[in-house]
Design goal:
Layout: E1 5-8, E2 11-14, E3 17-19, E4 22-24, E5 29-33, E6 40-45, H1 49-87, H2 89-100, H3 104-126, E7 132-135, E8 139-147, E9 150-154, H4 160-173, E10 177-181, H5 188-199, E11 207-209, H6 214-222, E12 229-233, H7 236-249, E13 253-256, E14 261-265, H8 271-280, E15 292-298, H9 302-313, H10 334-349, E16 353-356, E17 371-374, H11 381-384, E18 391-397, H12 400-407, E19 412-413, E20 415-419, H13 423-432, E21 437-440, E22 455-456, E23 459-460, H14 465-472, E24 473-481
Parallel strand pairs: 9-10, 9-12, 10-11, 12-13, 14-15, 14-20, 15-18, 17-18, 20-21
Antiparallel strand pairs: 1-2, 3-4, 5-6, 7-8, 8-24, 13-23, 16-17, 19-22
Helix pairs in contact: 1-3, 1-5, 1-6, 2-3, 3-4, 8-9
The chain binds 1,4-dihydronicotinamide adenine dinucleotide (NAI) and ligand LM24SWP5.
Residues 158-159, 162, 166, 288-290, 446, 452 line the site of the ligand O=C(O)/C=C/C=C(\O)C(=O)O.
């Protein structure tokens, strides 16, 4: 491997940027540690303005030729890219687990295959974009989806490869070139992704990766004057900063942000399935934006259901995420651990009572016990703010109006989960909860054709299917007077 590299989980990974088809090193570095055991995984190049300028220039240079290929010309290259990800599922999964502490089995069976699907799904979909026309009395309106140009893609550490390819897939399929800024707490799989794209024949400059700290590399990219789209997944607070940069240059921005999603259990629900699903919210130590962290249970089944959840949660084994029996791995970083522990401490001080958990787990520095807080009133911080850890709250309700009010009583609106066997009731509640996605009798079932995103402070815009292309293209109408051609 050219340039600087590290070996993690037996895999060689470049610690340099990937700019214009070459590995580029910065003098300045940032250290990367594994949350599993605190081991030092390596030092990566920390980009700033110079690297952002070089990457945007490379992407701009590569844009005309990539755009000119059209969806059909790009298809075989992107399919090969997806095949390259599939061929390295085990490497990517093992590196992701070392880097961010997510469950190895989840990465092998779900997360990395989904990354490949993100690339191939949008490559296929792009074939269907052009060719629509709208007939009106005087003219025919030919609708075109032209690539927007250079897209900056910024992603968080909890699922970096999956969330980055969720943007790279449609952006490249639509004919854009991209600059990726991976999360500094889990930067490695995005570096591998660049090698895989290169080996698949993605031309130099079409996909660039600038490593570094958000406030430096990320800031330089979102403030760059020659960027046509900014797509961000991360926290609401960071989105507000990036949004100011986007507003200054009127650059379209999409934002997939945090959540504090309700998990509603009606008395007529399949309580065993619901209890298993509640316990599943602890997976990956609750570092899942979509997690249904506010459990709301109909009063008449509250005690029975609590015992079922207690039983299911007792199987949420805390441990090394490489172990197949582990369900709850580490929190990502000591700063994040302190943040989660702070929420728990303040919840206790506010009068919330842990029914279980509430402490550092007896496993390692960054491991936290699956925790459930009762004695919750809706205004408590623990019921309002996103913890992004294995911490759930428990509330009850007596009527549908009451639970809808509770569910909507946060600044977030990313997702929600509802268990009920009564279709009319379920659909009524689901339609009245403000959220981008509402799962009924299931959780985290994803179809890439469906819209995905958040309401209120959980985001701007939607990704998935046609919505991704609405964002990554300049939609044009060529309006031709009928009978005006010779
Ligand atoms: N809605 C969704 O699809 C998802 C949302 N998330 C949210 O992400 C958050 C956790 O991720 P974090 O990495 O802690 O979020 P974060 O907002 O701190 O960082 C996200 C990314 O933004 C970059 N960044 C930070 N400051 C920046 C700046 N000033 N300019 C440009 N880039 C900057 C970081 O380097 C990182 O790559 C949670 O709130 C979670 O809910 C996570 C996964 C999915
Ligand atoms: O399926 C998606 O597009 C987004 C998923 C989000 C996560 O995987 C997460 O927050 O862990």
């Amino acid at each position: 491997m050219n340039g600087n590299s590290v070996k993690v989980a037996g895999v060689d990974i470049s610690t340099d940027h990937w700019i214009g088809g070459k590995r580029v090193a910065s003098k300045q570095k940032f250290a990367n540690f594994s949350p599993i055991d605190g081991s030092h995984l390596g030092d990566l190049s920390a980009g700033g303005k110079a690297e952002a300028d070089a990457a945007v220039a490379a992407a701009r240079k590569a844009f005309p030729a990539w755009a000119a290929l059209g969806p059909k010309g790009r298809l075989p290259i992107l399919k090969k890219f997806a095949e390259g990800i599939k061929a390295r599922v085990n490497d990517l999964a093992a590196v992701e687990t070392m880097d961010n502490g997510s469950l190895l089995m989840g990465n092998v069976h779900r997360v990395v295959p989904r990354a490949a699907q993100n690339i191939e799904f949008f490559a296929d979909w792009a074939l269907t974009l052009d060719g629509h026309s709208i007939d009106s009395p005087e003219v025919v309106n030919h609708v075109r989806y032209d690539p927007a140009g250079v897209a900056v893609l910024i992603t968080p550490w909890n699922a970096p490869l999956m969330l980055t390819t969720w943007k790279v897939g449609p952006a490249l399929a639509a004919g854009n070139t991209v600059v990726v800024k991976p999360p500094e707490w889990a930067p490695l799989t995005c570096s591998l992704m660049a090698d895989i794209a290169h080996a698949a024949g993605v031309p130099a400059g079409v996909l660039n990766v600038v490593q570094g700290i958000g406030e430096e590399a990320g800031d330089a990219l979102v403030n760059h004057p020659d960027v046509d789209r900014i797509s961000f997944t991360g926290s609401t607070d960071t989105a507000k900063i990036i949004g100011q940069a986007a507003a200054r240059s009127i650059t379209p921005m999409s934002a997939e942000l945090g959540g504090k999603s309700p998990f509603i259990v009606c008395a007529d629900a399949d309580l065993d399935a619901a209890a298993q699903t509640v316990a599943g919210q602890y997976m990956n130590a609750g570092q899942v934006c979509l997690a249904g962290t506010r459990i709301m249970v109909e009063k008449k089944i509250e005690e029975e259901f609590l015992e079922k959840v207690r039983g299911a949660a007792s199987h949420m084994i805390v441990g090394d995420p490489r172990d197949k029996d582990t369900r709850v791995g580490p929190l990502i970083h000591k700063e994040h651990f302190a943040r989660v522990a702070g929420f728990v401490e303040r919840a206790r001080a506010d009068g919330a009572v842990p029914l279980w958990g509430g402490n550092r787990a007896n496993f390692g520095e960054l491991y936290f016990e699956p925790t459930l807080f009762a004695n919750i009133t809706p205004e408590l911080e623990i019921a309002q703010r996103e913890v992004f850890g294995p911490v759930l709250t428990w509330q009850n309700f007596s009527s549908d109006d009451e639970v809808i009010e509770l569910a909507n009583n946060t600044r977030y609106g990313l997702a929600g989960t509802l268990f009920s066997r009564n279709e009319k009731r379920a659909m009524d509640i689901a339609s009245r909860v403000t959220a981008g996605t509402l799962w009924v009798n299931c959780f985290f079932v994803r179809d890439l054709a469906a819209p995905f995103g958040g309401a209120k402070d959980s985001g701007i815009g939607r990704e998935g299917g046609t919505w991704s292309f609405d964002f990554y293209t300049d939609i044009k109408n060529i309006s031709v007077r009928k009978g005006s051609f010779a």
